[in-house]
Specification:
The protein has helices at residues 32-55, 72-80, 98-101, 107-112, 132-135, 141-145, 147-160, 174-186, 197-203, 205-218, 234-252, and strands at 59-66, 88-92, 119-123, 163-171, 226-230. It is of the alpha/beta class. The structure holds adenosine monophosphate and magnesium ion (MG). Magnesium ion binds at residues 68, 195, 198.
Length: 270
């Protein structure tokens, strides 16, 4: 039985985040027990990514969402270390620019979808359009309510066009966020990450959790499943995400393209 199934959300679920323990570490007692597995997965990922790149027929999109300090950046650093940077496309989504606002909300997202052969990572995503946009009432309720279905349709279309999608919600506790924000204040090398605006968002914690519960429950599909990743322990977060990516790529099983027919007859002259 695959461990990942425990964290994958079934389509049309009613999610209550209080039922999910952000400090869960699955079968492991501590980090040391997971170290070897995660390094073995990294080696697998490096080979699988090369095959995906060589095959150039399909792509894999990884969507990362979570509250401030939940570890989206750290996950990207960890998962991507060692892979060929030419085969990876990382995109962060901040507040939309005037040009982006002049288009539909999926316009900027669609452009960032990884091209064939690539592994794409979204640091935040179109889900912000049913999260921050909902919490701050940036559009009327009728508009954001319609988006869950639109997002499912969009992701299904991407899937049918050769993009496999995996979505991860990095689930931390409110206490853990406090610690991490405090750390950004105390550690001079982390001061640059401290954003005073994060404190205002923290006050809206419950509203965000509710918005996440809806997004996770309504938009987990067989085409593009959501995973609730316990993220209080960084090492377990990294382990689980790495495991899920490797398992998914193994299922995709990308192949090196067949060599041109007459390759055996090629002679390289001195
Ligand atoms: P960071 O991930 O720390 O760089 O912050 C990016 C900020 O952009 C977050 O506060 C997001 O909520 C915000 N953001 C991302 N997408 C949108 C959106 N569609 N509308 C408004 N704010 C957004
Ligand atoms: Mg931030």
């Amino acid at each position: 039985m695959s461990l990942i199934k425990d964290y994958r959300i079934k389509p049309d679920s009613q999610i209550n985040l209080k039922d999910y323990n952000p400090s869960d570490t699955g079968p492991f007692k501590d980090k040391n027990e997971a170290v070897e597995d995660v390094e073995a997965d990294r080696q697998k990922l490096i080979v699988l990514q090369e095959r995906l790149y060589a095959e150039k027929r399909r792509s894999l999109l990884i969507v990362l969402q979570g509250m401030d300090t939940s570890g989206k950046d750290g996950t990207i650093t960890h998962v991507m270390s060692g892979v060929n940077p030419q085969g990876v496309q990382v995109t962060g989504f901040g507040p939309p620019s005037p040009e982006e606002l002049a288009h539909d909300y999926l316009w900027r997202v669609h452009q960032a979808v990884p091209s064939r052969g690539h592994l794409g990572i979204f640091n935040r995503s179109h889900y912000e359009d049913v999260l921050v946009v909902r919490v701050h009432q940036l559009v009327p309720e009728k508009v954001w309510r319609a988006r869950y279905q639109q997002i499912n349709d969009f992701e299904r279309q991407l899937n049918e066009s050769g993009t496999t999608i995996l979505k991860f919600f990095l689930h931390i506790s409110k206490d853990e966020q406090k610690k991490r924000l405090q750390d950004r204040l105390d550690d001079a090398t982390k001061n640059w990450k401290f954003n005073i605006g994060d404190l205002a968002e923290r006050k809206l914690w419950d509203d965000y959790q509710q918005a996440y519960e809806d997004a996770l429950g309504k938009c987990s599909t067989d085409d593009a499943p959501w995973h609730i990743v316990p993220a209080n322990r960084k090492w377990y977060r990294n382990y689980l995400i790495m495991r899920t990516i490797v398992e998914t790529l193994e299922k995709m099983n990308p192949q090196y393209p067949p060599p041109p027919p007459d390759l055996g007859k090629v002679v390289i002259e001195d």
